[in-house]
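ABC-type sugar transport system, ATPase component
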Amino acid sequence: MNDYPPALLHLDGVGRRYGGLHALHDISITLPTGARHAVIGPNGAGKSTLFGVIAGSVRPTSGRVLLDGRDVNRLGPAARARRGVGRTFQHPAVFGRLSAAANVALAINRRTPPAARSASARRGMNTDRARAVLHAAGLAAYADMPAAALPYGVRRRLELAVALTPQPRLLLLDEPSAGLDPGDVAQLVETIRALPPEVTVLLIDHHLDLVWDVADTVTVLQHGNHIATGTPDEIRADTAVRAVYLTTAGTPAAAVPDCVPDPVPPSGERRRLLEVRNLQAGYDGAPAVHDLNFDVFEGKILALLGRNGAGKTTVLNALAGLTPLTPPTSVTLGGGRLPTAAHRIARAGLTLVPQGRRLFSLTVAEHLTVAAATATRDRHVGRQWSRDDILALLPALGTRLRHSAERLSGGEQQMLAFARALLARPRVLLLDEPSEGLAPALVQQISVAISTIAAQGVGVVIAEQNLSLALSLADDVVVLEHGHVALTAATADFTESHHRRLHDLLGVTPVGANA
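Tokens:
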């Protein structure tokens, strides 16, 4: 028997400790059936740990999780899923080698009674139903494509379709808008709004316009502590929330003036570091990008923009040697022909910080040690960064040296991915969605770090869905549409017509435009 009124989910003083670290401290939240509840807060606030506790992948060290009034602390993720808990993850959790239809069919199979599974499979019923699910989600065109080959935004939509297929009563959405273009975000909002009223939604997201659009209640966390819960209007007006979520804590990267040993030459004297001509690349013999031409100069930042599926990640992966380049592509790095093998490309001075970070199960200190040990010794490649340089530029890592990468917040993981790349001594640094999943204050820190890196003569190429961030950083812009260059311009020369064309290509509604 419990002392609480009926609720689908109730967290009763939940806490989670990792040694001496309080990831969550005495959190109590109640969600009635049909609620649309959001959890926001800075990176490292404990939001993803909270989701793990609710989903059953993390066991609380204190307090209780009640589902339908029953204590489920001892139940794992599978048992909670059978009781109606579904979730998505910070990075799309789909089976990359399986087709989109096969991913959905697995979710259908999980919901089918065991006695009927083999018969359904023999008759192909799951495949037919999977295609119907994909059609309803607007994904029918991707049914037979391997999930790993799908554009990032489509993979996110597929993961949501998979999560919804078992018809969960409680849906946990962890950063569902991360890495999505404006059109995908608008579609995500409509999908959440269209959910049946009996489905309860709990979401984490740094896209505050999305939060205000879909949530009826918002909870704010900081350092594992509850700061406030209220309506979106109440949270927006809360001065404590603004202080912890929208201002930058700690020492900003800009406060490290001695990181720059020499001023970068004037624009007219800057060396061309990377020359790309007629770039063509794709998957399984099918080109995804065609005839791309651009240059990257010493100390300058090039923004590679476009909707999801336009080819941005393909370009970065192809330059880094992860996706084959095909004729008539010609790429030179530092005046020499770009190698073909990924490890040789990295040693030549072109380094990728991939979307999703792709860190190892090592501590921060171990990541830095391995990266430094494997860096090129060629004196003609980029500046040699020391560990002290890295910790001065990204001071948050200095307090996390003994922490494993999986225990870091999303922002700290992004900083570690930056650090690992810088220790490789890049001439050209490729950044794929560096602001993805980051709180507003941390986006400011990452922005300053990128500017500081470029100021030391590194050429930077940034693929980014955050348009305001990209334009604030970039010297030049290349916009892709369906794998082709649709717009090229220097940001200093941007006119009103450039802005209108850019908004049209990206599906962005200009501020002040009529709805």
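Confidence is low (pLDDT under 50) at residues 1-5, 248-257, 511-515.
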